[in-house]
């Protein structure tokens, strides 16, 4: 079934010059990039995007990190793209994410409270539509 998902290339990915490499992997997998833009996130966007994590110990470091530089936001389209992009991205912790994935190949820990894990991808049809409305 054709779906849409929201992808963010986080400030670590943009700052490290990995935007092209990440978009290359998405296109090589066969997903369409329906919308794409680079922007500085606002605190309001991040509060909405990360509402489910409010109160967790990593919440404020995560918001501060996401404000630390520009992000790239994209809407991807394709059959089962929500699950497919999360598979491309790899698991949350970049140190142990499987080689072959974006996080596993390009990410690692940097000794900080926040997990700088390069990308975000929506986890369900409902979150995708909610997140797309935050960023586009
Ligand atoms: P993301 O997919 O954007 O969703 C929430 C983010 O919080 C996650 O990627 C990580 O960047 C971060 N995160 C999740 N769990 C932890 C944790 N235990 N410690 C630090 N950061 C975390």
TrEMBL record:
* Residues at which ATP binds: 10, 58, 86, 92, 103, 117
Task: Say if the entry is tagged with keyword Transferase.
Answer: yes
The subcellular localization recorded is: Cytoplasm
Provide the Nucleoside diphosphate kinase-like domain boundaries. Answer: 2-136
Q: What main location does UniProt list?
A: cytoplasm
Major enzyme class: transferase
Q: Which reaction does it catalyse?
A: a 2'-deoxyribonucleoside 5'-diphosphate + ATP = a 2'-deoxyribonucleoside 5'-triphosphate + ADP; a ribonucleoside 5'-diphosphate + ATP = a ribonucleoside 5'-triphosphate + ADP
Q: Does the keyword Ribonucleoprotein apply?
A: no
**Superkingdom:** Bacteria
Give the required cofactors.
Answer: Mg(2+)
List the active-site residues.
120 (pros-phosphohistidine intermediate)
| Membrane-crossing segments per the record | none
Which key words tag this protein in UniProt? ATP-binding, Cytoplasm, Kinase, Magnesium, Metal-binding, Nucleotide metabolism, Nucleotide-binding, Phosphoprotein, Transferase
Which Enzyme Commission number(s) are listed? 2.7.4.6
Q: Which GO terms describe its molecular function?
A: nucleoside diphosphate kinase activity
Q: Which InterPro entries match?
A: NDK-like_dom (IPR034907), NDK-like_dom_sf (IPR036850), Nucleoside_diP_kinase (IPR001564), Nucleoside_diP_kinase_AS (IPR023005)
Q: How does it assemble?
A: Homotetramer.
Q: Which family does it belong to?
A: Belongs to the NDK family.
Q: What does this protein do?
A: Major role in the synthesis of nucleoside triphosphates other than ATP. The ATP gamma phosphate is transferred to the NDP beta phosphate via a ping-pong mechanism, using a phosphorylated active-site intermediate.
What protein is this chain from?
Nucleoside diphosphate kinase
